[in-house]
Amino acid sequence: MPELPEVEVIKIGLNKLLIGQDINSVKHDWVKSFPNAAQDVNNFLIGATVKSIKRRAKVLIIGLSTGYSLVIHLKMTGQLVYVSGKSRFGGGHPSISLGGQLPDSSTRVIFGFAGGGKLYFNDQRKFGWVRLIPTAEVPNIDFFKTVGPEPLAPSFTKRKFKERLQKRPNSVIKAVLLDQKVIAGVGNIYADESLWGAKIHPETPVNKLKNGDIEKLFDEIRTVLNLSIKKGGSTDKNYVDAEGKKGSYLEFARVFRREGSPCPRCSNEIIKTRVAGRGTHICPYCQQRVS
DNA sequence: CACTTGACCTGTCCGC
DNA sequence: TGCGGACAGGTCAAGT
Known about the structure:
By secondary structure, the chain is of the alpha+beta class. It is built from 7 helices and 10 strands. It has a 4-stranded antiparallel sheet, with helices on one face. The structure holds a DNA duplex (16 and 16 nucleotides).
């Protein structure tokens, strides 16, 4: 589910809701959703104050006063929804758009706060995870050791983007965009959207891309990610923000989930195909195959 | 090595 | 209506 924009929107929301709050309970019923909970929860989670909420790639990092951090990956269907203890719905109803009361059948972990609020980690498909890790060791987890640069960071330049792509000269461009070791945070939605914007066929090998193609793609990735953050992210099925609200980027999407509709640029029909093992949306006229 | 495929899970939708 | 199969926003491990 969530790609960079969705995780960023959750981060912004949690920053408003959780900073300064004290955690006083945790419940988890699916071991893989919080694999190391047993050892350190009592010493470093219960009683901790939330100090910071950060994002790196598609991962959230909640910094605690105990020197530990909660590191959270939502994978395909994860949600992090906060419900205030003062909710007029009785404390279990985050928002009309989430549909019903929490916890529900997808709730895997519940963090309780001293003020009565609760943070629900919901994950229908159980791919996501929460880990409690010493803050100093967070950068050393396997995922962070290998993950690529943040595409929205000012220090990430067109030159760096080109250099990183060129390490994978024979791979098709969509597979490279989805590879988190190359750049962080781009997933299936924004890969399709930015390739359409740059008029690049997703199966184009990297070494067939012209300089101008790569520069245009760089700009499109940033444009699409920034627009989505502004729109509150993309809700396909499961995604909601920290208050349980859906995002509206897909109303603006040009190709993602638009198969059968006219291309907004040339009016030819958008088609769905399969590239790098993933459902892929293209305009076959705007995005000509190069081989 | 570089690249592709299957596995991890549950739920939904589509065709027979 | 029931049932099987394909598919869904992400990453790993294992295979070629």
